[in-house]
Amino acid sequence: xxxxxxxxxxxxxxxxxxxxARALHAGVDVIAADLNPKMQDWLNDAIDNAAPSLNALTADxxxxxxxxxxxxxxxxxxxxxxxxxxxxxxxxxxxxxxVFATLAEHAPADVIIASSTSGFMPSEMQxxxxxxxxxxxxHPFNPVYLCPLVEIVGGNETDDxxxxxxxxxxxxxxxxxxxxxxxxPGHISDRLQEAMWREILHALNDDIATTGELDEAxxxxxxxRWAIMGMNQIYMIAGGEGGARHFIEQFGxxxxxxxxxxxxxxxxxxxxxxxADGTEAQAGGRSIRELERIRDECMxxxxxxxxxxxxxxxxxxxxxxKHLRHRAExxx
Length: 332
Ligand SMILES: NC(=O)c1ccc[n+]([C@@H]2O[C@H](COP(=O)([O-])OP(=O)(O)OC[C@H]3O[C@@H](n4cnc5c(N)ncnc54)[C@H](O)[C@@H]3O)[C@@H](O)[C@H]2O)c1
What we know:
By secondary structure, this protein is of the alpha/beta class. The protein has 14 helices and eight strands. It has helices at residues 14-25, 39-57, 75-81, 93-106, 122-126, 160-172, 189-205, 211-219, 222-226, 231-238, 243-251, 269-283, 288-308, 312-331, and strands at 6-10, 29-33, 69-72, 84-87, 112-115, 135-139, 149-154, 176-179. The chain has an eight-stranded mixed β-sheet with strand order 3-2-1-4-5-6-7-8, sandwiched between helices. It is globular and about 55 Å long. The chain starts with 5 loop residues before the first strand and ends with a helix. The site of nicotinamide-adenine-dinucleotide (NAD) has 23 residues, from α1 and α4.
């Protein structure tokens, strides 16, 4: 398998730019393409915006020399020169399929083509492309430069060895690769997030709470725990000495009532307005950029604390440091 020295990015919106910032910081060269030439300025801006957080995150890690960035509107240039291609174009199956057909026609057969798709299954996207065995989903989280999670999913035609190569590459740029056992729409994490969001929309629709109150219910309570341990481990602890079994005895019966809904409410104008106006009021006049900065500074601080305990995203940061040290020793 080829060494991955140059990452090709297709689509340089929120997610593509996040991939670029992460890879460049980890010392990987990037060739990034977007149909819209105006995205070049936007991309440079987004990378600059991410730099202080990335520098703070890795302040005590000996980082390699920064990668080099090239921007183009020519997708074929990416196909012909990248060692690994990560697609982040809009979430429309037809657009994605046509982009993959072009890329797969021109990219050498051992170049992995990965999609950032939030919900499509790899089998839906790889069928009919040239060398479908090198196609995977590599689903990241926003902001890609600070969230280490990437869900790796293979389709019917994917060769497992490519999933392992993708894992190695993502880990080498400081990510935590979650190998998803079976493809399902929405992979794993977005299904969990959607379940919660559905309840939020119901609560807005039924006039139970505002967006601000719903967010209070998350950030002062369960949300504070989730960066450290997931819901399952947290519930085990909540069962006291009786652990998970005691927890189920106590709260299992509520699943029969049930407290929550299964289907989302229809997205009426009223719900959309409650969601949009509510979050606008919560922002309190702060711009998206300001909110991003606060979010990023706190995400950095949390990960640096978790690093001391070698827990969750902090453990990923420790692994990243080990990987970089190993790479530096090998090359010099
Ligand atoms: N935004 C998120 O939170 C998030 C998180 C994880 C994954 N994703 C996934 O990442 C992908 C990109 O999402 P995003 O939020 O960065 O979108 P975005 O709209 O911010 O960016 C998409 C970019 O793709 C470009 N593009 C390239 N080729 C195109 C084509 N053929 N037709 C139209 N546009 C083209 C657009 O110009 C635009 O710059 C989607 O599949 C999405 O589901 C998004």
